[in-house]
Write a structure and sequence with these properties.
The complex is a heterodimer of chains A (about 800) and B (about 110). With about 800 residues, chain A is an alpha/beta fold. Chain A is about 30% helix and about 20% strand. Chain A is built from 26 helices and 39 strands. With about 110 residues, chain B is mostly beta strands. Chain B has one domain: Rieske [2Fe-2S] iron-sulphur domain (Rieske Iron-sulfur Protein, 3-layer Sandwich), CATH 2.102.10. Chain B is about 0% helix and about 40% strand. The termini of chain B are close together. Classes of the chains: A alpha/beta (about 800), B mainly beta (about 110).
């Protein structure tokens, strides 16, 4: 290879648009150029769209790198990351970087992107103020979340809301200031904007709509914001996310034609034919873009011309928007609101908090807004882009593709019926046909490989379920839908189906369920047997006999198996209290059976560890004599009720939290639930019992009790949602029973309350438990009825050999 | 090879298991839904979990520690996991369960 014969391409901007163009160019003509890249950030090329996922803690920076440094080396690209270009000399055809390095070019590509818009308000230079644009901003925000408590985000658009949600996930109190009356008004209509605001408010984000920020206050560091109408909020961190503006400074100084962006023609060349521009910095026919799909189109066209082609031209296409906030699905495309010539078709499902709208003109779809369920977004978007005449299905297409095309209700979109040229990945412009062809040609058999080869779902990731379905369909593996899981591989039925049929057909044994619902295995498997056992136990209290052979070992042995095969024994300590006699009994049993360790557990109890299985009944027998019962520390059921000392002892206590915790524990012990269930009762808002990360939490205040639900302190930290406020202890008990019963009846087996509530929405739970008084009483009554069969101490039964004797006794030894 | 009677079939609950102390390590004896009986060394090939505490389904058992599934007919782990636990021949006659012990008393 003779370097002197190669042309020199310099790229200013190491972001998504610039490197995508280089990738496309390398595909077309890998040996044509010596390539030099200048980037302002000291990082390799990364996926800027995913910064919100990094902020939310769902991804690490390494996960979002598109091309690592090795890629630059492999392709002989000289990368100057952290050394921004500061001048272009179009006459001498050179670029000069901040370090003083000057590089000559034959062709120059500008991919300088955008800069955050900085509003003209005082205080923006204070420490604690940042934008939301690059990795440095995200680092600033993550560091602030670790040290400080209050954040204000200025801007209620896509970026601002993703920033707010990420900070909320990191534990900050977050308020959003938005200039307009509804959120994301450029992408959503008023109804969807209001729904979004309501759902985010329920997740604990505060909003100041119609809010014009007048000043960011503080001296050493930011302390708050003031609005023009007199409102204000304290803040330790202020994120400015009101929009972006093309970065045209270099191009302007170099004398290129600029307007809002750097003006380019259909071939992406600027007013200098050897200088090209792509991405957010480019202005094409008066329009600048901020979404990834058109930028990929630009990259493809630009690479074609850089490689010597002269055929492809760039033409703006319709684009679709999605919001990346876990559990909140929003999708929009095209025209958002009907004008004089259009009609709107609207579907609202208040129970599931779902909303969808189609804007129709002359028998065609010209726009859509989806909130809650967005699985049909790709289908509507395809109809918009193709301008398909939909007159004959217009009356029912609002119900979605499967209902419209197949005439029935199916789960999710039907990938088999999609045309080959239907776009699956909007970000990367990948069609169904390309994905299917690639899977077949390269013999791909897993999702990661399909993503790597086709780039489908490689940017924002929202089409990943569709790509997985296409893979399954192409390989001939059956899938039953992207969002509703089946109970296990033994059946194609969902948890919801199975529970509904158990009630409808009055199925009262596992065999009856497996037979009626055409199970593929005779006696199920280790996944479905425990689930069916639970569903039947919940549906038929007092009638269905619990099947110990369908319990995991911990629930069958009423003790937790440890990694060495021994067991732990944890007696119940009501509300975390114990009598001297109970402590003495635990000490005595520990000595007698050579217990390795006694530990105070996270649930305010004493656990004894290292009990051999054959000793369990005898250990329980001694504990039972002292009045101790099983703490169900092994159960998918009520575990502990953590309490603080409350009014009895604490100078801040407002109610008797310990006594209330004991009452709750007496009410609910012995209960089986879809997964473990923990409670906490705090005597004041200082919340020493950590009620705000429990499945059901109570925070006592002077006027009564704040009830909290759906918290989780485990793998995925989730603060509770507020259920309501009640005045009396009797109400606390009734609401608790009703909430637990709703969870028992409607959550999937192995769902904690947190993911269940994320799925059904706190509004639904409130509607059932708070707003519907008669419904609440009925639920609470069902709970108490079930409890009348469940509150037998499993240890006492087994200590006396009444139940499961063979479980604990080995056979006579071989000698 | 000698057959040794170890228990009655009724001593093992359907879909249940019993353990049997033995010189070379504890043996797990399983009773499946069709009343067939299998015996394997009571150690999962993965992390030595006690297979006797797992959920029995078909002619298989799921290890209680990390849900590896062991085929009781062969002692082999079910794909994609790879591993094997020694199997001991069994027979049931007149409701009595017998275990095969080889001449060298390997069990």
């Amino acid at each position: 290879m003779l370097p002197a014969t190669r042309e020199r391409l310099v790229v200013i901007g190491n972001g998504m648009a610039g490197m995508r163009t280089v990738e496309e160019l390398l595909k077309l003509d890998p040996a044509r150029y010596d390539i030099t890249v200048f980037g302002a950030e000291p990082h390799p090329n990364y996926d800027r769209i995913m910064l919100s996922s990094v902020l939310a803690g769902e991804k690490q920076v390494d996960d979002i790198v598109i091309n690592p440094r090795a890629w630059y080396d492999d392709n002989d690209i000289a990368l100057y990351a952290g050394d921004p270009a500061i001048a272009i000399d179009p006459k001498a055809r050179t670029v000069t970087a901040q370090s003083g390095l000057t590089v000559p070019y034959d062709r120059l590509l500008l991919a300088t992107g955008s800069r955050p818009i900085v509003p003209p308000i005082p205080g923006l230079n204070l420490p604690g103020v940042c934008a939301f644009r690059d990795i440095a901003d995200v680092d600033t925000m993550i560091a602030a979340a670790g040290t400080y408590r209050k954040a204000v985000v200025i801007g209620g658009g896509l970026l601002g809301l993703e920033a707010a949600w990420g900070l909320k996930r990191r534990g900050m109190d977050v308020a959003v200031v938005h200039l307009m009356p509804t959120l994301m008004e450029r992408q959503l209509d008023e109804t969807a904007g209001k729904l979004l605001q309501r759902d985010l408010t329920e997740r604990g984000i505060n909003f100041f709509t119609d809010g014009q920020t007048e000043e960011v206050t503080g001296r050493e560091r930011v302390t708050g914001i003031k609005l023009a109408d007199g409102r204000g909020a304290p803040a330790d961190l202020v994120v400015v996310a009101i929009g972006i503006r093309p970065d045209i400074a270099l191009a302007k100084t170099a004398g290129l034609e600029v307007n809002r962006g750097i003006v380019v023609g259909d071939n992406m060349a600027t007013s200098d034919p050897d200088i090209f521009a792509v991405g957010e910095c480019a202005e094409h026919r008066g329009a600048v873009v901020g979404l990834v799909a058109p930028i990929w189109d630009m990259a493809r066209v630009c690479a074609h011309h850089l490689a010597g082609g002269d055929e492809l031209i760039y033409a703006a296409q319709a684009t679709a928007t999605r919001l990346k906030i876990t559990g909140i699905d929003v999708y929009s495309a095209g025209q958002l609101v009907a004008g004089e010539d259009e009609d709107e078709v609207i579907l609202r499902d208040a129970r599931r908090s779902a909303y969808r709208k189609l804007v129709m003109r002359d028998g065609k779809v010209v726009g859509t807004v989806l909130y809650g369920d967005v699985t049909d977004g790709a289908w509507y978007f395809d109809l918009i882009r193709r301008k398909t005449d939909v007159s004959d299905i217009a009356d029912r297409m609002i119900l979605g593709q499967s209902a419209t095309v197949a005439g029935g209700i199916a789960a999710g979109p039907d990938v088999a019926s999609m045309p080959d040229d239907m776009q699956i990945c909007g970000c990367n412009g990948v069609c169904k046909g390309t994905i299917v062809d690639t899977i077949q040609a390269k013999g791909l058999d897993n999702y990661e490989a399909v993503k790597a080869h086709t780039k489908a779902s490689a940017s924002c990731g929202s089409c990943a379920p569709l790509v997985r379905q296409l893979l399954a369909a192409t390989l001939g593996i059956e899938v039953s839908g992207p969002t509703i899981p089946t109970v296990c591989k033994c059946t194609d039925h969902s948890h919801e189906d199975v529970r509904a049929q158990i009630l409808k057909q009055k199925l009262k044994t596992q065999d009856a369920v497996r037979k009626a619902m055409a199970w593929k295995t005779a006696d199920g498997c280790a996944s479905c047997r425990p689930a069916l056992n639970y569903y039947l136990l919940c549906a038929w209290p007092g009638e269905y006999a619990d099947d110990s052979r369908s319990r995991f070992i911990n629930e069958r042995a009423h003790a937790n198996i440890q990694k060495d095969g021994t067991y732990s024994v944890i007696p119940r300590m009501w509300g975390g209290t114990a009598t001297p006699g109970e402590i003495a009994a635990i000490a005595k049993v520990a000595q007698k059976y050579d217990i390795k360790e006694i530990k105070i557990t996270g649930g305010q109890r004493l656990g004894i560890y290292g009990v051999k299985k054959p000793d369990l009944p005898a250990v329980w027998g001694e504990l039972t004599e002292a009045g101790l019962v099983s703490g169900h520390a092994y159960a998918k059921g009520l575990r502990t009720v953590k309490t603080c000392v409350g009014l009895e002892w604490c100078r801040f206590g407002t109610q008797d939290s310990t006594a209330l915790g004991k009452q709750l524990e007496r009410l609910t012990w012995g209960n089986w639930t879809p997964h473990k269930f923990k409670m906490g009762v705090s005597g004041c808002p200082r919340n020493c019992a950590e009620a705000s990360i429990k499945d059901f939490g109570v925070v006592c205040v002077e006027s009564g009790f704040d009830l909290l639900v759906g918290g989780n302190g485990g793998i995925e930290l989730r603060g509770t949602d507020r259920l309501c406020h009640v005045a009396t202890e009797a109400e606390v008990l009734e609401y608790c029973a009703a909430f637990m019963q709703l969870y028992r009846e409607e959550a999937r087996y192995l769902d904690r309350t947190a993911p269940w509530i994320e799925r059904v929405g706190i509004a639904y739970v409130r509607a059932r438990v708070v707003d519907d008084g008669a419904g609440r009483q009925a639920l609470a009554e069902k709970f108490r009825h079930a409890q009348s069969f469940l509150q037998d101490d499993p240890w006492a039964e087994r200590a006396t050999g009444q139940v499961d004797a063979t479980e604990f006794e080995p056979l006579t030894a071989l000698v | 090879m000698t057959w040794i009677r170890i228990c009655r079939l009724d001593d093992i609950l359907p879909l249940g298991a019993r353990t049997l102390p033995a010189p070379k390590g504890e043996i797990a004896v399983f009773r499946c839904a069709d009343d067939s009986v299998f015996a394997v060394l009571n150690r999962c090939p993965h992390k030595q979990g006690p297979l006797s505490e797992g959920i029995v389904h078909g002619h298989r058992v799921a290890c209680p520690l990390h849900s590896w599934v062991i085929d009781l007919e062969s002692g082999e782990a079910v794909a994609p996991d790879i591993g094997c636990t020694p199997k001991i021949p069994t027979k049931v006659e007149n409701g009595e369960v017998f275990l095969a012990v080889s001449e060298g008393r390997s069990h």
